[in-house]
Amino acid sequence: MQKYALRCVECGTIQDTYSTHCDSHDSLLRTEYLEKKLIPRNLPGIWKYSEWLPVDGVIPEGSAHSVTYQSEGLGKELGLENLYISFNGYWPEREAWMKTCSFKDLESFPTMQRLLQHNDPRVMVVASAGNTARAFAHVASITGQPLLLIVPKMSKHRLWIPGDDTSSICTVGVGGDYYSAIELASRISCRNDFITEGGARNVARRDGMGTVMLDATLTTRRLPQHYFQAVGSGTGGVAVWEAAMRLVDDGRFGNQLPRLHLAQNLPCAPLYAMQSGADIDSSCPKGMWDDVLFNRQPPYNVRGGVKDALDNTNGLLYGITNKEAEEAKELFEVTEGIDILNAPSVAIAALIKAVHTQSIDPHDHILLNITGGGKERLEQEYATKELDFDLTVSPTNPEVENEIIDMITEKLGARDGQ
User: Fold this and answer.
1) How far is residue 68's CA from residue 220's CA, in Å, rounded to a whole number?
2) Average pLDDT for residues 295-299, to the nearest whole number?
3) Residue 17 in 3-state DSSP?
4) 3-class DSSP assignment, residue 115
5) Alpha carbon distance 243, 385 (integer Å)
6) Is the pLDDT of residue 277 over 90?
């Protein structure tokens, strides 16, 4: 019997288990698992949650997972008695082993495993502002799966992996921002021999990110009352909402969904603008504290998307300035004793704002997702390999798709000895 089904949120019909779209509606699909209880398996890392991941089998090297611990430093500083931190990065002292230093590892390994078990030989296409590209490059370097990364040229500094084998990875730098990369990736994915990783519509990505909530709930033996995360597309918020609904149905961890507190970086905050009517600066993402948080077309109004998640949890969206994020980053690193990436400091700033506006009570159970950290710590112990662009292109070049395909054919053909 199939361990899960994919149901359209809009019409309720069951779709093919490898689909990313409903045949009839522009709606997200949602995974329904045969196993209704959260039963961890005796497997490493994220794979312990395999009963609630849409995969059969594991990639053993993908042994990292979220680490949940009760904050002492930051919690005391903010007067919060039950602040728990989900740390997603590299911090050996807390047994956190994500070698890309980003929770995007939680997406990349299940997505790749799903492709491998389907015996799909096509080249996976990933558009990214950097962190997602790094995570997928890492898993491709392990599995050898052909991968095409399309990344804004300004994000090149984020392209590195904790390994050496880049023979299956083709990297294209594109002029423009993340949305330019998304548009180009979408066009390439429609061609023969290519397959999109699916973005927000890929249940393997969402359910992988949802393990943040699974780990926290197992650690604390209850669902949190509040959940804080910095978001670009908001898919991570949707993922933990879906995971929380499964945990409510489990019946052992409480019957109240956590209130989502999702944060974006002003003035480049599309989700915040969609909800509040604010303007987005035309220069975006230039000048952002962290441009990985900028996505021009997030899944806000799609059924099962960000708006539904916020409405269902009485959630809040925060607009955070660069100064607020910078001060929050410094506070966290001093009080918790580990370096973090810029993006999660936007979530910390939202937490600080919620304390000041009394949106949360000092006694509430709170989960703060630190979506990336420990890069400085990692560099003390591992040599990393930077990824060079195999090709740089303009998105307006009418020959851009043919240039990319020629490059891939040459690189992967050389790898395979053709």
Assistant:
1) 9
2) 90
3) coil
4) helix
5) 34
6) no
Domain borders along the chain are 67-101+203-378, 103-202+383-415
pLDDT digits (tens, 9 = 90+) for 132-172: 999 999 999 999 999 999 999 999 999 999 877 899 999 99
CA end-to-end span of the chain, whole Å?
Answer: 41
Decide yes or no: CATH 3.40.50.1100 for domain 67-101+203-378.
yes
Helical (H) or strand (E) element with 28:
none
Amino acid at 176: G
Q: Are strands 226-230 and 365-370 parallel, antiparallel or unpaired?
A: parallel
Domain 103-202+383-415 sits in CATH at: 3.40.50.1100
* pLDDT average, residue stretch 237-254: 98
> Helices (H) and strands (E) in the chain — how many of each?
12, 18
Secondary structure E strands in 39-79: 67-70
Q: Determine the longest span between alpha carbons in the chain, in angstroms.
A: 64
pLDDT tens digit sequence for 75-111: 999 999 999 999 999 999 999 999 999 999 999 999 9
- What does the DSSP assignment read for 117-151? HTT--SEEEEE-SSHHHHHHHHHHHHH---EEEEE
Is residue 24 exposed (0-12), middle (13-18) or buried (19+ Cβ within 10 Å)? exposed
The tokens describing 251, both together, are 């019946």
Give residue for tokens 């997603």.
Answer: 88
Q: Determine which helix (DSSP H) or strand (DSSP E) holds 207, and give its type and residue range.
A: helix 203-220
For residue 391, give the 3-state DSSP assignment. Answer: strand
CA angle, 43 as apex, 377 and 105 as ends, to 5°? 40
Q: Bridge-partner residues for 370, per DSSP?
A: 87
**Under 8 Å between Cβ of 53 and 62:** no
DSSP state of 355: H
What 3-state DSSP class applies to 230?
strand
